[in-house]
Amino acid sequence: DLDQPIIDDVEQEVEEWAKKQQQQIDQYERFAEYRRRYVGDISHELKTPIFNIQGYLHTLLEGGYHDEKISMSFLKKAAKNVERLQTIVEDLSAISRLESGELILDTEPFDIKALATEVFEELEMKSKEAKIELGYKSGADTGFMVMADRESIRQVLVNLVTNSLKYGDVGGSTRIGFYDMESYILCEVADNGIGIPEKHLPHVFDRFYRVDKSRSRQKGGSGLGLAIVKHIMEAHQQTINVRSSPGLGSTFGITLAKA
Ligand code: ADP
User: Domain Histidine kinase spans what residues (predicted)?
Assistant: First the structure.
């Protein structure tokens, strides 16, 4: 259109360009904020065990080492905190591998019940210590063939069953069940432990989120177990869900592709 001044088009172009720039800045700022929080969270998590270790060593060096009983007890406590640091660092590197997409899924068909049995065997000692029985839900006589990265799904089951032992009560039990849902297989890990209040449920998969900080720490939790589980399920383009009633228990369900 020859009558139309060209300036209108230019103005619109400039406006659109400015809008795009702003969107990019916003996105960058969101990312920068995410990174700041991430680094802040991590250093906060590392501080507690480091301060503890410092405290125990300081007391020993100040003369506590003369007393054999104190020495033994403080060294044990220091060692426990070193273990915690190790768990946090290992879990963080697992998360960073998952977030960077470095984990390449080695998908293969396998029997989910056979894997659950292996996980139960691996955690037998812990279950005995916690005095919580591991077993299958009624009806879970046969497993199902699923298509997934077996090693990652083992990690998922290990984390879920370990949690059921950490947040269960003496004399309690953990049950795994399998269900054929037509288009996928549902695998559930159910416990009759302390449960999770409803308002916390949407957050339990966030990194470092804990309902009860002291219980998690006392049980050696890094606060990253469920974040790792969620990442692994997302990498599989599958889902994880949780239902829970405080005092009655929790059930975590993962979906798996049929083989
Ligand atoms: P943590 O290392 O603290 O166990 P997770 O990421 O594995 O970290 O779990 C996050 C939080 O969710 C836990 O601190 C706990 O409060 C809650 N939680 C997880 N699993 C269970 C469970 N089976 N029963 C009750 N609470 C649970």
Answer: 41-259
H-run or E-run covering 252: strand 249-258
Of 45, 210, 233, the residue with max ligand 1 atoms within 8 A of its CB, to mutate for a pocket test, comes to: 210
Q: For residue range 132-183, what is the model confidence (pLDDT) as tens digits?
A: 999 999 987 888 999 999 999 999 999 999 999 999 999 999 999 999 999 9
For 114-148, b where at least 16 C-beta lie within 10 A, e where not — what string? Answer: ebbeebbeebeeebeebebebebeeebeebbebeb
162 alpha carbon to ligand 1 midpoint, in Å? 9
Condensed to tens digits (0 to 9), the pLDDT of residues 41-59 reads 899 999 999 999 999 999 9
What pLDDT is recorded for position 1?
65
Q: What is the pLDDT at residue 143? A: 84
Could you tell me how far CA 176 lies from the centroid of its own chain? 18
CA dihedral sign of residues 139, 144, 146, 149? positive
Indicate which atom in ligand 1 lies nearest the CA of residue 228: 6
| SS3 readout for 135-203 | EECCCCCCCCEEEEEHHHHHHHHHHHHHHHHHCCCCCCEEEEEEEECCCCEEEEEEECCCCCCHHHHHH
Please tell me the distance between residue 163's alpha carbon and the centre of ligand 1 in angstroms.
6
